[in-house]
Amino acid sequence: MELYIIRHGDPDYANDTLTEKGWKEAEALVPRMVQINPTKIYASPRGRAQDTSKPSLKVLGMEYTIENWMNESMDYMQFCMDPKDFDAGYTVSIEKGAVLNKDFAPERTKALEEMIKASDEFLARHGYVREGMRYRIVTPNNDRIACFCHGGFGSAWINHLLGCHPLFSWYRICFNPTAVTKFYMMETGDGYAVPRAEYIGDTSHLFKA
Prior knowledge:
two-stranded antiparallel ribbon; Rossmann fold; 26% strand; 34% helix; globular; alpha/beta
């Protein structure tokens, strides 16, 4: 299974849609989406994420399914933290397979825990059940799943799939408008798979356009 996490185009936040530039970016994404040829498309409940998908949906003849848990929230935007705290350390529990959030913004922990739970449920619906830091393959498939969402949410989700602390991408990776991140479920030969990132935050389609 392949999973594509796509940030929306340049946003008009006030009207929850895209700017003129954002619509052009969404159009530039179309050839890439045609090449990906997704079997399933999901979108955040926010208009700017849905609008980014629309030019591609028109060409592909598909519709999106709304996933409320992919919604953006300031709980996923923690740039307010002092950068010196980035080196405070964190813990990944291999046994429980979860990032322990004790070293940053305790009041934000609930949102991240809810995202992790929703991610696990989402992947389980697609045949991969999380056990620790890997996923038991229940229904192996060749689905190509595209998710149109947001920079803050997307970076938090990507770090969960990588098993990294969310600060890793909040401070170190730039997710520009329409950036595409690709994971594939790499089988380990024992009935399990792990999400492996093939590329992160790629916007080469904009340069081609």
